[in-house]
């Protein structure tokens, strides 16, 4: 009991005290004048000239900038991306959902986008209040019509607001996560910057041959 | 004049911040000494075993995530091994190496949580716990790269894993493996010889190795008593017979020994991950002939893995359908709890939660 090891332990905490912070102040971080100007890509003087209100706020340490940890492209988020033109209404996703939270109502005789007949979709509701984002529905989709989304910030005041109705699915931005979608990963699709414009882009391509996989492995290591 | 003391019975939990979940203890104290203790659990029972009977073999993977939510990858691994044994699926080598990497990273993450919370139970609120959680976050970032989720991974599938690791995973893993030993050394320097921790943990809650073997206790708790029992070594699953690692053993079997074994096991896990990276070869991560709906023949199969908490076993009975007829989980947390009374009775109030935390239980796994 000399207390020497306590001093060694305190040395460790001192080392960590001067280390750069690891914490991210989600959702926003207080900034001063320099930080606020940097967030808008201006010099501090430029900010004072262009936006004096915000500059005063920043000088009083009341201005905030949003901050977030960068997500990965495979992130299984909650805004599902659904491409109606690829969907045939086969309800594989509803069948493979472990919780049974996808509700699909169809009528026969939709538009033929794939070979063979497809159904017109009347209802395609996903109750994400009960969803656990396992992604099995995406894995089960044979036509690559349903994808996981890339975002996670969907909070509402009611449980009913957590049901994504079909109209919202149609209108939502097409930013699919590359979870179980190697075709996005292969061409470097970034859901945080771009959207899927054409439904042909979302399709599955040929599997890479073992030789190609080997070559890629050689390049990586 | 002598002071007369009377035993007093107190309910601790289920909503007590120190009980590591919704765990309840009915403890009888005489002054500051514990004279009797009765563990009561079942507050987090979600019926996972029953729910598994109504889900297909692939869907059950999502249930196993939620049993031990600090170590989802090893839970998936145990379940998938049982399914593969039941169906006779031969897994792809690359898938097996990938899931070994994932499982060892998960072991480091789980031990970090165990060490951090053990020190927090001692009263060091904050510092060591935050250091441990910070390192765990980096591992969870890698899991997000692999499978898009941080806690509830659902990464493994019968025959391997669902998807190959992305290109950016390997450099990130190299950075982590270069950084992690220093951080573990830092924890070592901070805690191992710290006078306060030594005084509080040595010779506290000693359990005899014979009693632990009789109670079928497994994991770091058993190895802290000097019993060399590690399923990765005794009954190698996956490719653990092809990697070299040591099994840190301690003989004291007290709280300090349990902490020390966990700290050393993290270093061994780093070694295993490094060997896996050298051995992994390109190829498919899952045999293409494995269907989405696995339909094993009638029969039963048991597979066990060395989870961070101990031996985690899955016993599956199939009647030839798409869902298991019965699924039983041998949860290490539940079985390691059976010696709680022997550990705590005779000890002090202040040591109660430290000893309890040193078992490293997870209520999600105890109640399932």
| Secondary-structure content class of chain A | alpha+beta
Q: Estimate nothing, just give the exact number of structural domains of chain B.
A: 1
CATH fold-level topology of chain B: Cytochrome-c3 Hydrogenase, chain B
The ordered H/E elements of chain A are: HEHHHEEHEEHEEHHH
What can you tell me about this protein's structure?
The complex is a heterodimer of chains A (221) and B (368). In chain A, the strands form three sheets. Chain A has a three-stranded antiparallel β-sheet with strand order 4-5-7. Chain A has a two-stranded antiparallel sheet with strand order 1-2. The longest helix of chain A is centred in the first third of the chain and has 14 residues, at 4-17. Chain A is built from nine helices and seven strands; from the N terminus they run αβαααββαββαββααα. In chain A, 28% of the residues are buried. With 221 residues, chain A is α+β, with helices and mostly antiparallel strands. Chain A has two domains: 24-69, no CATH class; 77-202, 2-Layer Sandwich (Alpha-Beta Plaits), CATH 3.30.70.3270. The model of chain A has no long low-confidence stretch (mean pLDDT 79). Helix content of chain B is 46%, strand content 13%. The longest helix of chain B is centred in the first third of the chain and has 29 residues, at 93-121. Chain B is globular and about 85 Å long. The mean pLDDT of chain B is 87. Classes of the chains: A alpha+beta (221), B alpha+beta (368). At the A-B interface, helix 1, helix 6 and helix 9 of A face helix 2, helix 5, helix 6 and helix 7 of B.
Task: Please sum up the structure shown.
By secondary structure, chain A is of the alpha+beta class.
Please give a handful of descriptors for the protein shown.
heterodimer; A: 221 residues; alpha+beta; Alpha-Beta Plaits; two-stranded antiparallel ribbon; 9 helices; 14% strand; B: alpha+beta; Cytochrome-c3 Hydrogenase, chain B; three-stranded antiparallel beta sheet; 15 helices; 13% strand
């Amino acid at each position: 009991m000399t207390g020497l090891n306590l001093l060694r332990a305190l040395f460790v905490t001192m080392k960590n005290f001067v280390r750069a912070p690891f914490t991210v102040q989600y959702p926003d971080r207080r900034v001063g004048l320099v930080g606020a100007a940097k967030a808008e890509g201006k010099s501090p003087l430029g900010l004072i000239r262009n936006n004096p209100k915000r500059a005063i706020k920043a000088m009083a340490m009341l201005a905030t900038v949003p901050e977030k940890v960068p997500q990965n492209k495979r992130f299984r988020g909650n805004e599902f991306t659904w491409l109606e033109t690829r969907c045939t209404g086969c309800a594989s996703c509803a069948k493979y959902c472990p919780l049974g939270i996808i509700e699909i109502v169809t009528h026969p005789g939709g538009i033929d986008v794939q070979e063979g007949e497809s159904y017109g979709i009347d209802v395609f509701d996903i109750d994400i209040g009960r969803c656990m984002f396992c992604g099995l529905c995406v894995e089960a989709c044979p036509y690559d019509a349903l994808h996981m989304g890339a975002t996670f910030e969907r909070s509402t005041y009611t449980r009913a607001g957590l049901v994504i109705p079909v109209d919202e699915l149609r209108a939502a931005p097409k930013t699919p996560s590359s979870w179980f979608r190697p075709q996005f990963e292969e061409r470097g699709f970034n859901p945080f910057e771009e959207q899927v414009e054409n439904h042909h882009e979302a399709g599955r391509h040929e599997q890479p041959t073992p030789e190609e996989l080997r070559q890629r492995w050689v390049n990586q290591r | 004049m002598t002071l007369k003391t009377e035993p007093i019975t107190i309910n601790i939990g289920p909503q007590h911040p120190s009980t590591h979940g919704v765990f309840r203890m009915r403890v009888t104290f005489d002054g500051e000494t514990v004279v009797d203790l009765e563990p009561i659990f079942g507050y987090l029972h979600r019926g996972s075993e029953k729910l598994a009977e109504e889900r297909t073999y692939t869907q059950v993977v999502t249930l196993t995530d939620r049993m031990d939510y600090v170590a989802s990858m090893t839970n998936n691994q145990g379940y998938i091994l049982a399914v593969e044994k039941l169906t006779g699926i031969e897994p792809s080598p690359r898938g097996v190496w990938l899931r070994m990497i994932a499982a060892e990273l998960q072991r480091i993450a789980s031990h970090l949580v165990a060490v951090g919370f053990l020190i927090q139970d001692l009263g060091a609120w904050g510092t060591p716990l935050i250091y441990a959680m910070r390192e765990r976050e980096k591992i969870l970032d890698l899991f997000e790269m692999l499978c898009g989720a941080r806690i509830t991974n659902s990464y493994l599938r019968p025959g391997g894993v669902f998807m190959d690791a992305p290109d950016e995973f390997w450099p990130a893993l190299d950075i982590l493996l270069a950084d992690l030993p220093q951080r573990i050394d830092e924890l070592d320097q901070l805690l191992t010889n710290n006078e306060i921790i030594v005084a509080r943990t040595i010779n506290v809650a000693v359990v005899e190795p014979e009693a632990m073997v009789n109670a079928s206790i497994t994991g770091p708790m058993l190895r802290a008593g000097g019993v060399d029992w590690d399923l990765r070594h005794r009954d190698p699953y996956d490719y653990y017979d092809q990697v070299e690692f040591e099994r840190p053993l301690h003989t004291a079997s007290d709280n300090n020994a349990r902490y020390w074994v966990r700290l050393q096991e993290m270093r061994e896990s780093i070694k295993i991950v490094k060997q896996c990276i050298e051995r992994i070869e390109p190829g498919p991560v899952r045999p293409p002939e494995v269907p989405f709906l696995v339909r094993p023949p009638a029969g039963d199969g048991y597979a066990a893995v060395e989870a961070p908490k101990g031996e985690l076993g899955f016993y599956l009975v199939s009647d030839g359908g798409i869902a298991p007829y019965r699924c039983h989980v041998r949860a290490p947390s539940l079985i390691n709890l059976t010696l709680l009374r022997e550990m705590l009775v005779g000890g002090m109030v202040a040591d109660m939660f430290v000893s309890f935390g040193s078992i490293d239980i997870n209520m999600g796994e105890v109640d399932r």
